[in-house]
Amino acid sequence: MVASGCAAPEQRVESAHPVLSPSTAPPRPxxxxxxADERVLALDPEHITARQVREVxxxxxxxxxxxxxGSLDFITMQPFSEFLIAMGYPADRLRNPASGxxxxxxxxxxxxxxxxxxxYREREGMTPLLIGHSQGxxxxxxVLHELxxxxxxxIEVWNPLADRGEGRDWFVDPDDGARxxxxxxxxxxxxxxxTGKLPRLLLGQWTMLGKLRGIPDTVIDFTGYTIDWDPIxxxxxxxxxxxxxxxxxxxxxxxxxxTSHVGxxxxxxxxxxxxxxxxxxxYRPPPELxxxxxxxxxxxxxxIAAADLWYSVKKHWCLDAQRAIQARRAxxxxxxx
Length: 337
Prior knowledge:
Blueprint: E1 2-4, H1 34-41, H2 50-55, E2 65-68, H3 78-87, H4 110-124, E3 129-133, H5 135-147, E4 158-159, E5 164-165, E6 170-172, E7 179-181, E8 187-193, H6 197-202, E9 214-215, E10 219-227, E11 243-244, E12 249-255, H7 268-272, H8 274-282, H9 291-296, H10 300-334
Parallel strand pairs: 2-3, 3-8, 8-10, 9-11, 10-12
Antiparallel strand pairs: 1-12, 4-5, 6-7
């Protein structure tokens, strides 16, 4: 149930994304292709087909996705990232450029991650999407609060390749050349999977107990996935939902009690199953996926989460690509002739 508030081959589209280096100078954007741009602009972000992913979005720039794993090192987000790659998402947008890994540790300084988002925004023109499982979901929410100045009045831009701060709390927005504060940066999409308060209490993460379910305005779309009767997360039917503290659009997706907390991120096999993949490709929220269809795959909760996440990832991939094209055209129109 969803409540709303306020295997394809690996894609390698190197030309759509600037090559990063540790230097502070932003790279030049890739050259534009007017015909390809028009095809991207013609897309409906809320109705992206598998064919449009292959033939249109695959050649468009895509935002990075930072997939944060939980507290146990052997349960990573790599299978989730591999699922997205199999569905058509560019692999280089999922890899940690410093290590090449497809999963990020949740034992990370949330202020550094918030500063990293600004670094990518300045250098790539897109703010990464944040998706976290268990403790990784807590980090996702904490970063949103960092960007809302809940812990510190300013945030230093953080270079993830050199793993050091840049001595400034502002970034240059490539859309218009304006200098902007890291505090107040908005993430387009963020999600938390099977994240509860019980582990926060047991692990001494007390500063997040009162903030975990409140989503500030530093994200546009947020989805929280909660397993009914999850003994690890400490969640149960009718428990506290995620809620918007302001204008963020917040959705709550309840997953069946039989869903495995530990196994939830392991979605890669779904992309290789023709029946499951067809359901995922056709999915639209609120869930146009019957209980019978979901149950037929053998793991209803994982299928619902996979389908819902892929829908949101496709949507924001399209929206970000369209915004980037429009911003590039606006800058070109203002340039001296």
